[in-house]
Amino acid sequence: MDTAAVEVTGLVKRYGDTTAVADLSFTAPRGAVTALLGPNGAGKTSTIEVCEGFRRADAGRVRVLGLDPVRDARALKPRVGVMLQSGGVPTGARAGEWLRLMAAFHADPVPPGLLLERLGLTSAARTPFRRLSGGQQQRLSLAAAVIGRPELVFLDEPTAGLDPQARIAAWELVGDLRSAGVGVVLTTHYMEEAERLADHVVIIDHGRVVADGPTGELTRGGRELRFRAVSDLDVSGLTAALPPGCSVAGHPGGQYVVTTADPEGVGPGLVATVTTWCAANDVLPEDLRVHRRTLEDVFLELTGRDLRDS
Ligand SMILES: Nc1ncnc2c1ncn2[C@@H]1O[C@H](COP(=O)(O)OP(=O)(O)OP(=O)(O)O)[C@@H](O)[C@H]1O
């Protein structure tokens, strides 16, 4: 069986003179959570909308559960759940009615009442969509995306604007989907969310993939070793003891940061060199720890710190 839930090869998407997606390729595995990350305007929504069959690619090949999202739209519809950034629910539809209607399109839907309860919408069941709060609208769209027990769900910024409780409920729902073997492809601007939920991360910038891999692998290789010690440590002496490419910075309060340029990050050898030097100089390195890179560190390293004008 084809193991990919989504396979995108050389995707190009243009809007007039704007190239939103430029030769983009990635694979999202089945039964796993894949997060598409990228600054505003990077091309995430365009990519996801082509995968959903809502937009046509200008070039490249897209396969969803092995099928073509435009040509095989009818076959894919019952197997794929979609949560649009814009909601996609008629403004006058009442939350409960809308979910019951969505349920009617599927052979074995999740009971609408159960989903309303899971997502904290029971008391809003009779409220028209336009009168729901932004967070309630988001949650209703999420519920509609999963009600048909899809094999794959596309979630475009599923937790944007949710309060912490609603975000946790959404995370739990995504976790349950994954446990049930459902593939999830989501976009988010919350790095902590991606780190927590995603098995696989694809970072996009200017319509191209700049990093792609298992979340743990992308964040591997912390470049810093930190410790506290006396405030008048001989920083130049320690620097001289370290391998080339390492530097030491002293900060107020006796905080020290050893940084390595080695792409593999801080290894056991560097930790041993620092502690050996400390022992030889009668220095106790307190709170010694290798600072793990977060997904946010990786994201900013790859996409820069400049604000995007888009
Ligand atoms: N319908 C459209 N017509 C013209 N340009 C568009 C259209 N949709 C998107 N774009 C442009 O394409 C580029 C990519 O947009 P897209 O929405 O795919 O990015 P994104 O990564 O999802 O951004 P965000 O994080 O802000 O949602 C942007 O420059 C955007 O202005």
Automatic annotation (TrEMBL):
<keyword id="KW-0067">ATP-binding</keyword>
<dbReference type="GO" id="GO:0005886">
    <property type="term" value="C:plasma membrane"/>
</dbReference>
<dbReference type="GO" id="GO:0016887">
    <property type="term" value="F:ATP hydrolysis activity"/>
</dbReference>
<feature type="domain" description="ABC transporter">
    <location>
        <begin position="6"/>
        <end position="231"/>
    </location>
</feature>
<protein>
    <submittedName>
        <fullName>ABC-2 type transport system ATP-binding protein</fullName>
    </submittedName>
</protein>
<keyword id="KW-1003">Cell membrane</keyword>
<keyword id="KW-1278">Translocase</keyword>
<dbReference type="GO" id="GO:0005524">
    <property type="term" value="F:ATP binding"/>
</dbReference>
<keyword id="KW-0046">Antibiotic resistance</keyword>
<keyword id="KW-0813">Transport</keyword>
<dbReference type="InterPro" id="IPR027417">
    <property type="entry name" value="P-loop_NTPase"/>
</dbReference>
<keyword id="KW-0547">Nucleotide-binding</keyword>
<dbReference type="InterPro" id="IPR050763">
    <property type="entry name" value="ABC_transporter_ATP-binding"/>
</dbReference>
<dbReference type="InterPro" id="IPR003593">
    <property type="entry name" value="AAA+_ATPase"/>
</dbReference>
<keyword id="KW-0472">Membrane</keyword>
<dbReference type="InterPro" id="IPR017871">
    <property type="entry name" value="ABC_transporter-like_CS"/>
</dbReference>
<dbReference type="GO" id="GO:0046677">
    <property type="term" value="P:response to antibiotic"/>
</dbReference>
<dbReference type="InterPro" id="IPR003439">
    <property type="entry name" value="ABC_transporter-like_ATP-bd"/>
</dbReference>
<dbReference type="Pfam" id="PF00005">
    <property type="entry name" value="ABC_tran"/>
</dbReference>
